[in-house]
Amino acid sequence: MTYPVLIIGGGLAGLTTGIELSRAGIRVLLIERKNYPHHKVCGEYISNEVRPYLKKLGLDPTLLGAAEINSFRFTSPRGHILDSPLTLGGFGLSRYLFDDQLYQLAKASGVEFLLNTSVSEVHWNEDHFTVQTAAGDEYKAEVVMGAYGKRARLDRELHRDFMQQTSPYMGVKYHIQYDFPKDTIALHNFRNGYCGISAIEDDKYCMCYLTERSNVKMYGSIPEMERQVLAQNPHIYTILKEAKFLYDSPEVINEISFAPKKAVVNHILMSGDAAGLITPLCGNGMAMAIHGGWIAAQEIIEYYKKHRNRKRLEDGYTRRWNEQFSTRLWVGRNVQRMFGNETLSEFALHFFGLLPPLLRLVIRNTHGKPFITS
Ligand SMILES: Cc1cc2nc3c(=O)[nH]c(=O)nc-3n(C[C@H](O)[C@H](O)[C@H](O)COP(=O)(O)OP(=O)(O)OC[C@H]3O[C@@H](n4cnc5c(N)ncnc54)[C@H](O)[C@@H]3O)c2cc1C
């Protein structure tokens, strides 16, 4: 049989699209490499721009014990502090809980799942796709959505431009217990990186940082790099000394690329990080994945219900994706240049300290407005 829609990857983008399509009566097969629940490298701060939408979907962050976050602390590598209110704000919830809750909603909505299954190849055959798994099984689909995250072997198969270059960035995440205001997200800068800390459910905190692999290479191991580099920022020093670390070892990912990507590749509609990853300091990659997943679903629903042709589907999706996200990605990439560099981030702290409206403008330009669907 040929599925109307096959989604590769069950993170926030894939699950959102799956739920929307199933509820609109369109049959969906979602193939996910892992099982639920699972941990992911992510700062776990979710912008309130998606809160009304999530509630409408049936997921209420408050009922899940999410932390309410409405203030921002920025520290420079030398430990200087700048505090600012977060106008829109957000909430803290672990991916372990968040993705699993969306998965439960998707299952209840009728999405069909193949878990612990990795997609290895996708072929376009003029009017349908053949999707092959690593185990050698094949599935046919009329529409395929690539929601498989930042980087996958599939990107190499598809000859995507950003795979031609290596990326220096790596991400490291822990869950910790620590004494810190629950309503504040802190962004602590250090040489070649920055580290976010904010509360999640159950009196826990997420500590997640982005750095360059060269930092680890220089010091031989992650713990040694943390002692020698991150701990130069006195706020991170205190956390490393006083916090209780809840994992045996951190979650780590490599080769995080912020290079621009295309929203449609070989007729596959890319969504979430597979379409473009915003720099983590903006704290809204998750909101963008959910919003983008919703846009993809609306375009696919129109394609089926209004009998549109494939070109209109692909062009319409690309246009809406770019309108919604291109500027934010660009601003995010440029703001990130100021961070991790000791001199520039000291300068940024003093500059934004003198001009708080400018800081609020930057925050506004990397975020969207709350999106509410009819
Ligand atoms: C260090 C760091 C910190 C961040 N902090 C924040 C933050 O605080 N707030 C925020 O909003 N955003 C943050 N982000 C960004 C955020 O994590 C992502 O934007 C978001 O997870 C994107 O969701 P997604 O659905 O596109 O991808 P993902 O959530 O990564 O989901 C992709 C899914 O696809 C599956 N998959 C991969 N390959 C295959 C395959 N071949 N076959 C089948 N399945 C496959 C994976 O197992 C995964 O479940 C951060 C990112 C980084 C790197």
Quick summary:
The chain is an alpha/beta fold and 374 residues long. The chain is built from eleven helices and 17 strands. β11 and β12 form a beta hairpin.
Explain the overall architecture.
- The chain is an alpha/beta fold and 374 residues long.
- The protein has one domain: FAD/NAD(P)-binding domain (3-Layer(bba) Sandwich), CATH 3.50.50.60.
- It has helices at residues 12-23, 51-57, 95-109, 153-157, 213-219, 222-228, 234-242, 285-305, 310-336, 342-354, 356-365, and strands spanning 2-8, 28-31, 45-47, 67-75, 81-92, 112-114, 119-124, 129-133, 138-146, 169-177, 184-190, 193-199, 205-212, 244-245, 251-256, 264-265, 268-270.
- Strands 3, 4, 5, 10, 11, 12, 13, 14 and 15 form a 9-stranded mixed β-sheet that branches.
- α5 crosses α6.
- The protein is globular and about 60 Å long.
- The site of flavin-adenine dinucleotide (FAD) has 40 residues, from α1, β3, β13 and α8.
CATH topology category name = FAD/NAD(P)-binding domain
Name the shape in a single word: globular
Instruction: Let me know the largest β-sheet.
Output: 9 strands, mixed
Number of alpha- plus pi-helical segments: 11
Are any ligands bound, and if so which?
Answer: flavin-adenine dinucleotide
| Domain module count | 1
Give me the CATH superfamily.
FAD/NAD(P)-binding domain
Unreliable stretches covering 5 or more consecutive residues: none
> How many strand elements?
17
| Proportion of helical residues | 25-40%
Broad structural category:
alpha/beta
Rounded to the nearest angstrom, the distance between the terminal CA atoms is: 33 Å
* Secondary-structure element pattern, one letter each: EHEEHEEHEEEEHEEEEHHHEEEEHHHH
Mean of the pLDDT scores? 92
Residues in β-strands, percent: 25-35%
Please name the CATH architecture. 3-Layer(bba) Sandwich
